[in-house]
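> forwarded from #structure-qc
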């Protein structure tokens, strides 16, 4: 049986484009951009927090507003232990999967198994991410809280009644983008747990790109302990400057990565709370590791590729994400070599 292991909860370690695209498609509802639904009341305690107590979810009242439903769903993704069967319908056809989410020693453990075709297993271990880099004047909060601070600036959330999904009552939540630089979402959240039972991804023309649905959810239960927050990271210094990003995309911390041929890959991760943009910059070491410039489609994701030379060294720039392709192309066109830059995450 073949498997792919992902060491970080936000897929930051995936460099292979084929592995990245397939993994995102298969992990579906399990691997989502998530953040904390409830923070400590005292800001000082919040900044010192190193874990989230999942037991808090047991006593919280049912959400009322669209924002409350979405935020609770973000926490539910971290704190509920479950096993499920799911189906994904997308450009590559129909796939059925077995999913599980567990928590071991404070770290999350997700497994997705393909039930048709080759017996492939995808595995993820990780912690709750933070919503930014640390620094002298920055004490990043858990990613869910960071997401909710800015989500309404770029999306309109609304409740659209109740339905029945996988034999369970579900609350439908529509998430509509306020511009044409990102996709829309429809979520059906389990009324009991707020776990996502179904997701539809809608493009800028209102067309459905993908449906991912749980077909059977074994009785989920709240983890009785804590889930650890990711470690704080200081932003690296690098000579690359990003001159343009779509409004609302903010840098998220990411650990240094190595490519398949063991060279250091400059990687940056940006998110608007619902979609991520991964940027990779590396020296090209032979044609076998070189991607053709232009666009590459990976299921519902696109990869935009550009080649440049820096001091006679050929470099490859890749922007990867579930966004309109013209947005990714503009991003890589606006990346410049700037040796005087101190932080490649900042766009003007």
């Amino acid at each position: 049986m073949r498997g792919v292991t992902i060491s970080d909860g936000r897929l930051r370690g995936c460099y292979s484009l084929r592995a990245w695209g397939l993994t995102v498609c298969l992990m579906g509802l399990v691997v989502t951009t998530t953040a904390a639904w409830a923070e400590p009341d005292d800001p000082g305690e919040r900044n010192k927090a190193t874990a989230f107590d999942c037991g808090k979810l047991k006593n919280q009242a049912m959400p009322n507003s669209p924002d409350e439903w979405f935020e609770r769903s973000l926490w539910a993704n971290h704190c509920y232990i479950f096993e499920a069967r799911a189906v994904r319908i997308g450009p590559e056809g129909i796939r059925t999967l077995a999913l599980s989410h567990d928590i071991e020693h404070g770290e999350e453990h997700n497994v997705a198994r393909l039930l048709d075709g080759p017996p492939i297993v995808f595995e993820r271990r990780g912690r709750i991410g933070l919503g930014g880099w640390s620094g002298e004047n920055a004490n990043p909060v858990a990613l869910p809280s960071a997401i909710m601070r800015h989500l309404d600036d770029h999306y309109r959330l609304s409740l659209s009644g109740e339905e029945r999904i996988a034999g369970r009552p579900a609350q439908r939540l529509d998430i509509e983008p306020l511009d044409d630089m990102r996709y829309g979402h429809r979520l059906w959240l389990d009324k009991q747990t707020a776990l996502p039972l179904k997701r539809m991804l809608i493009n800028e023309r209102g067309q459905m790109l993908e449906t991912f649905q749980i077909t059977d959810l074994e009785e989920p239960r709240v983890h009785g302990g804590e889930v650890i927050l990711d470690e704080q990271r200081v932003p690296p210094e690098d000579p690359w400057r990003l001159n343009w990003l779509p409004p609302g995309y903010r840098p998220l911390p990411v650990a240094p990565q190595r490519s398949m041929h063991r060279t250091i890959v400059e990687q940056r991760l940006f998110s608007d709370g619902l979609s991520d943009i991964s940027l990779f910059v590396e020296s090209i070491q032979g044609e076998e590791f070189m991607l053709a410039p232009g666009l590459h489609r990976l299921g519902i994701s696109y990869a935009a590729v550009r080649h440049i030379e820096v001091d006679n060294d050929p470099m490859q720039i890749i922007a990867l994400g579930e966004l309109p392709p013209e947005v990714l192309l503009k991003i890589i066109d606006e990346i410049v070599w700037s040796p005087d830059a101190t932080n490649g995450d900042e766009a003007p």
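QC bot note: The helical segments are 17-27, 43-48, 66-79, 143-150, 325-333. The chain has a mean pLDDT of 82.
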